[in-house]
Design a protein that fits this description.
Length: 231
């Protein structure tokens, strides 16, 4: 589904990503791990086109997208749930979702019923403004906004950040169900190792903008964590 091939990405004159290469297969979930400042969010933003790489290649389902604008990548099937959720605070849950639908040309449509199937908690607060929602409600809304765009590839940037354990478990089961039922591939940036070990097929570790290890999740041992991830 996704192939990132030797990309280099800069912020101004700062070289953030160095020849990063990874793949996400059809229906696969791959986690990207790393210490703060390793370049994880930059990788996702490179894939979406917000911070396009200066060198290398990115393919979605065999199509070279590295020179495409962000909106074209979105139309081809990439949806992004950013760190911090970025809910629009002054409009309702329903309006937040409809804004996401407008981005894919779905003008005038009501919120699809499947949103409330996956996120039943949103049904009772559909008229509530985004800014007054709890962290868990905002995260569900952020994933719902991405899902209504009918993605082939879902990019999730720290979806469990700041959430209590019971909500983390709920988000975990929702992601599993979405992948199973909607055949979505997922690239996940995440800090919670228990979450990663439970939900992921493969992982990659970024250190100072370089991939230093990739493997099956069974290889994410405590010794690997101590060597590559602990501060």
């Amino acid at each position: 589904m996704l192939r990132v091939d030797h990309i280099d990405t800069f912020y101004g004159t700062s070289h953030i990503l160095h020849e990063v290469t990874l793949e996400v297969g059809d229906g696969e979930l791959v986690a990207v791990l790393g210490r703060n400042g390793a370049g994880k969010t930059t990788l996702l933003r490179s894939i979406t086109g917000v911070n396009p790489p200066s060198a290398g290649r990115i393919e979605l389902a065999g199509i070279d997208i590295v020179r495409m604008k962000s909106h074209r990548r979105n139309h081809l099937g990439i949806s992004y749930v950013p760190q911090g959720r970025q809910i629009i605070p002054d409009i309702s849950v329903a309006e937040n979702i409809r804004v996401a639908m407008l981005g894919k040309g779905m003008n005038g449509r009501k919120v699809p019923d499947f949103v409330f199937d996956y996120f039943p908690a949103l049904r009772d607060i559909v008229g509530r403004k985004g800014g007054v929602l709890s962290g868990g409600q905002q995260q569900q809304l952020a994933i719902a906004r991405a899902l209504v765009q009918e993605p082939k590839l879902l990019l999730l940037d720290e979806p469990t950040e700041g959430l209590q354990p019971s909500v983390v478990e709920e988000i975990q089961e929702i992601i599993k169900r979405i992948m199973r039922e909607r055949k979505v591939s997922v690239l996940l940036v995440e800090q919670r190792l228990e979450f990663v070990r439970d939900i992921t097929q493969r992982f990659a570790i970024l250190e100072s903008g370089r991939i230093t290890m990739q493997g099956n999740v069974a290889e994410l041992t405590d010794s690997v964590v101590r060597k590559h991830l602990q501060v």
